Amino acid sequence: MSDAKTRAGFVALIGEPNAGKSTLTNHMVGAKVSIVTHKVQTTRARIRGVAIEGDAQIVFVDTPGLFQPRRRLDRAMVAAAWGGASDADVIVLLVEAHRGVTEGVQRILEGLEEIGKGRTVALAINKIDRVQSEVLLALTKDLNERYNFAETFMISAEKGHGVKDLRKWLADRLPEGPWLYPEDQIADLPMRMIAAEMTREKLTLRLHQELPYQLTVETENWEERKDGSARVDQIIYVARDGHKGIILGKRGETIKAVSQSARAELEEFMGRKIHLFLQVKVRPNWLEEKERYSEMGLDFRDGNK
């Protein structure tokens, strides 16, 4: 392929927590590169998934959900989200059909007045299967009156409805130029970070209430073995002793189930045998430690008030 015929660029998916950004990223890429749970605020870093559409390479930036930040981690996540949007060639705002124009959506629209200047901004109304067509039409009209979107798409990221049309439209709007990544690469996160995200997803799905937001997972060691397998050692950092007990579970059942589930997904993703070992450590102030933010792909300074 000659450079003149190819296109490549960044597409930032923004929206409130749980709007479906991670699900859409994974559907567009055709593989799981982003953490998907029923809980909000689970995506922490700007996760990049790479998709091919014809002669175009689309680099999807799945940003953390935009919300009212309360803690340092929250502020760093919101800064990462707006940073992802400001660096992108095209921005797609995801809005949940059944929730409509919430206070959070209104705040994002206000932010787009500045960030969206000189950029192509599209609207994707997600989870369309949850509402009647007249509600969709009214919401489309309302949102387009509030902001001048280049195009509006009605999609179901989970079921794949409308996703192909959106991907093709995005591909046509990227700048001409050489591809940014090798053809077979689907994400630009290091494998260590993808592995840590997989384990954190399993913890988030298994645990309840606030605990998932009080923990982080880091891949401490990755050892390639002669037989083609790999040994992966990970640390789960929690803020309190009580949290450690919850993660370990009765007779270690919880940590064992999480380890088995994460290992199975990692093996499927990599297509080879993985030996996964998890440790739980209590670090009361991990939310204030610069190193933890670097491991998550966030800027510690963005958490300053």
From TrEMBL:
| Keywords from the UniProt entry | Cell membrane, Cytoplasm, GTP-binding, Membrane, Nucleotide-binding, Ribosome biogenesis, RNA-binding, rRNA-binding
Which residues hold GTP?
15-22, 62-66, 126-129
Q: Write out the GO biological process terms.
A: ribosomal small subunit assembly
Entry's localization field: Cytoplasm; Cell membrane
Q: Where is this region: G3?
A: 62-65
According to the entry, every stretch annotated as the KH type-2 domain falls at: 207-284
**Which family, according to the similarity comment?**
Belongs to the TRAFAC class TrmE-Era-EngA-EngB-Septin-like GTPase superfamily. Era GTPase family.
Report residue spans for region: G2: 41-45
How this chain assembles, per its entry, is:
Monomer.
What InterPro entries does the annotation carry? G_ERA_dom, GTP-bd, GTPase_Era-like, KH_dom-like_a/b, KH_dom_type_2, KH_sf_prok-type, P-loop_NTPase, Small_GTP-bd
Region (G5), start-end ranges:
155-157
Domain (Era-type G): give its ranges: 7-176
What is the name of this protein?
GTPase Era
> Where do the segments described as G4 lie?
126-129
Task: Report the membrane topology from the UniProt record.
Answer: Peripheral membrane protein
**From which organism does this entry originate?**
Aliiroseovarius pelagivivens
Q: Mind listing the GO molecular function terms for this protein? A: GTP binding; GTPase activity; ribosomal small subunit binding; small ribosomal subunit rRNA binding
Can the keyword Cytoplasm be found in this entry's annotation?
Answer: yes
* PANTHER family assigned: GTPASE ERA (PTHR42698), GTPASE ERA, MITOCHONDRIAL (PTHR42698:SF1)
- Give the protein's biological function: An essential GTPase that binds both GDP and GTP, with rapid nucleotide exchange. Plays a role in 16S rRNA processing and 30S ribosomal subunit biogenesis and possibly also in cell cycle regulation and energy metabolism.
Q: What Gene Ontology cellular-component terms does the record carry?
A: cytosol; plasma membrane
Q: Mind telling me which NCBIfam families this protein's record contains?
A: era, PRK00089.1, small_GTP
Task: Write the lineage as a comma-separated list.
Answer: Bacteria, Pseudomonadati, Pseudomonadota, Alphaproteobacteria, Rhodobacterales
Q: Note down the stretches annotated as region G1.
A: 15-22
